[in-house]
Write a structure and sequence with these properties.
Length: about 230
């Protein structure tokens, strides 16, 4: 039986302030529920995203949940939509940035790999694990992968790559990075950036223009330093 079908009618239509017992009048916003659900999805997998469990962690009655969501499935659908919008939108946006060279176009996409505001690798990994047990989620993941590769492919075309080469380069660039995350490779940002010129030669087929690597490294290190600052 689905978890949300076990909730009684009174719970479904109570306001967020209608907690009982030890929960008192403590309220939780929709953002509170979504943030905790995302964290749980990343740390514990989709099976850990349960209404009762989330409510207990928030310290409130589960009646608050039904003020914002129709059911657990509604919450899961919104988590999946959040993943699509966040992780796919970043790659699409970076692929569309103006680039004076093919190496700059590749570097624009590379920004997704160090900036979690553009692409969250832990969330991506969690959704892919979820897709292993759900054909419907698998369809969404496959569609997103296709959109991402298509955006990178279009970037290579705009930068003057032949059509056949552009598609293969897009696939290699994207699938290599997804594999990097899946293998959970541990590597310092400094060590990875040291290989940047070689990565560009492999992915773009050309050496970077003067100043491109230096500008990219400076941005990447500033971003990492900002995230690590107390």
């Amino acid at each position: 039986m689905r978890e949300d079908s076990q909730e009684n009618g009174a719970d479904r239509h109570s306001s967020p302030a209608a907690g009982s017992g030890s929960t008192g009048n403590v309220k939780a916003t929709k953002e509170d529920w979504l943030k905790l659900a995302l964290k749980t999805l990343i740390c514990d997998g989709v099976d850990g995203v349960r209404i009762l469990t989330l409510g207990q962690k928030l310290g409130i009655s589960r009646s608050s949940f039904y003020w914002y969501f129709k059911s657990r499935q509604d919450l899961l659908d919104q988590l999946l939509q959040y993943w699509r919008e966040r992780n796919t939108r970043g790659i699409l946006a970076q692929s569309l940035l103006p680039a004076a060279s093919v190496t700059q176009g590749v570097l624009n996409v590379f920004e997704c790999w160090y900036d979690e505001d553009l692409f969250n690798p832990r969330l991506d990994f969690a959704v892919r694990a979820w897709a292993n047990g759900s054909s419907e989620v698998r369809k969404v993941v496959d569609l997103a992968d296709g959109e991402r590769v298509e955006a990178i492919y279009a970037m290579f075309l705009r930068c003057g790559c032949p059509q056949s080469d552009a598609l293969i380069r897009a696939r290699i660039l994207y699938f290599t990075q997804i594999g990097y995350y899946a293998l959970e490779i541990v590597e310092s940002i400094e060590n990875r950036l040291a290989h940047l010129p070689a990565y560009l030669r492999i992915h773009a087929g050309k050496d970077p223009l003067d100043g491109e690597v230096e500008a990219f490294v400076a941005r990447a290190l500033r971003r990492v330093d900002t995230r690590q600052a107390p």
